[in-house]
Design a protein that fits this description.
Bound molecules: uridine-diphosphate-2(N-acetylglucosaminyl) butyric acid
Largest sheet: 4 strands, mixed
Helix content: 25-40%
Number of helices: 14
Radius of gyration: 22 Å
Distance between the termini: 12 Å
Shape: globular
Amino acid sequence: MKDSIIVIRGKKRLAGRVKISGAKNAALPELAATILSSKPFRFFNVPVVEDIKVMVKALQIIGSQSEFTGNALKLKLAGLQSHLVPKEIAETSRASILILGPLLARNGYAKVSFPGGCQIGDRKIDFHLEGLKRMGADIHSEGSHIIARAQKIHGIEYTFPKKTVTGTENLLMAACLADGSTCLRNCATEPEVGDLVCLLKKMGADIQEIEADGLLIKGQTSLQGVEHAIIPDRIELGTYIIAGCFLDNDLIIENAVPEYVKSLIQVLHEIGIEVRLGENTIQVSAKGEIYPVEVETSPYPGFPTDLQAQLTALLTQANGSSRVTENIFNNRFQHIKELNKLGARIEVKNNVATVKGKTDLRGGVIHATDLRASAALVLGGLIADGETEIRNAHQLFRGYEHLPEKLIKLGAEIQIVNQDRDKYHNII
Ligand code: EPU
């Protein structure tokens, strides 16, 4: 997969039904939460993507038994075999940091390599570490590893200085097995955090949601294994909604939760595209003309940073100048240079991208730099005239389940090939 290239022949109409997979960013902390119990778990709707495979591998290293059957996953960590998440694992997925809190809580000791993952800017973990320290952990770094040790962690009162998704998840999981109560404030409220709370409550955790973004957790001595279906992926949903806005596409998206993408639907309304909402479906049909817009990313329920790149690709087709402000990560405009290679006219100044539309895109050779950037490049390729070759395509497979297959079913012309294009070896 490392050397795969996506080849798209653009300007094909997309129409029909597409089904959204389980949320990668809900599944990751939920699989890590199995560390909190020695009992068996069964998850449904697990997206089989590279980041999830890496998390399962990390759990296997510390002693979990796992079995995938389609999108169902059984996991059981009866006894710990290791307290180390090695560098090779942690550098491929940032979510490995989610093992630190639960492993420390269960075992009193954890050694996790500093996380890697998407290179989208400074991705600090100081609030994770600060919270765990306050819970009584002695934390220090040794080479590329973080080592955390505590006889028994205890409850704390902690206000996150800034909202952090995995930071909230890490401290929440640790607090479930801590001595006494923990009160976390200014928590991330993304649906993925909500689904983790739901799983932990089923496991027997005592968690109360207080005010708009607080969590009050009473630590337990043990937790149960349970069955749990992962919520649908709102970023995958948003990506297909945006795909439906191009050319004369007409998509019905199934297994959708409209509530999760309200901020995107609002932006689409502003640019002149209305979506039809069903109970679990969203229909989006392209309109002739779309208008420019000003958008800023912010924590949920604001416009998600994980859809910024895809929206930027759409705004190349708006009649006029749009402004996209990225407020979460400081290096999340890497798709722009690549979209410009296809003929887009986007300028970046600090954290603001000005997208000058409308531009006719033409095929070219471009590089995927991170997961969501790669989705934006696929969208660019779908509307470009001629052939687009997206290199470094493994980025896409970290987080989108069966994306080429789903798009081909809708009418796209896509091939995944090896580096050696002479052979033009077809992977799908
Ligand atoms: N931050 C700190 N200190 C911390 C933690 C975060 O300063 O201790 C800062 C970060 O540097 C960043 C901001 O807070 O500027 C928000 O980062 P956050 O911690 O919320 O991001 P994350 O938990 O590392 C998750 C998702 C990302 C998604 C962000 C924002 C997972 C596994 N990853 O990352 O997803 O972009 O929240 O919503 O849940 C993706 O799926 O492509 C992806 C990158």
